[in-house]
Amino acid sequence: MTIKSLTHMNNSKKNQKMQRSRRLFIKKKQIASKIIYCDSIFMQGTGLMMKPKSSVKNTAWLFKLRRARKTGITMFMVFFPIDIICMDKDNKIIELVRNLKPFSRYNTEEKISSFIELESGSIKKHSIKLKDKIILK
Fold first, then answer.
1. Which CATH topology does 21-136 take?
2. Rounded Cα–Cα distance for residues 78 and 24 (Å)
3. pLDDT, tens digit (0-9, with 9 covering 90-100), for 85-124
4. Residue 101: what are its φ and ψ, rounded to 5°?
5. Which of 54, 66, 77, 112 is the most exposed, fewest CB within 10 Å of its CB?
6. pTM score of the predicted model
7. Strand 72-74 relative to strand 105-107, pairing
């Protein structure tokens, strides 16, 4: 592989990241001004572990699963509570978890395609409800 082709590959990856959504909305209301995509095995495995509470301030951590399934979400080494929004393949909310405590675990009741971790209190603050649709812009 030449240096020119490696440079092109790196630029393509940068362009893909720039094309990603930057904000999260529900019913035209902005819920988070920043989205962190947890799409690598490492990011999906660690998520908010050992991160400061400021990591979820106005930020959505988005986890997309390879296929819809029931899954477990662990709070191991997460030192603050969070809210979790679970979605189907169409980004429709099918489960809501409020104030999940540090060092706990949550097992989804439904098969989900993705989930979002938010600052604790976000579900109540933004009146997020089941069947609402997540919009990424």
1. Jelly Rolls (2.60.120)
2. 23
3. 999 999 999 999 999 999 999 999 999 999 999 999 999 9
4. -75, 155
5. 66
6. 0.83
7. antiparallel
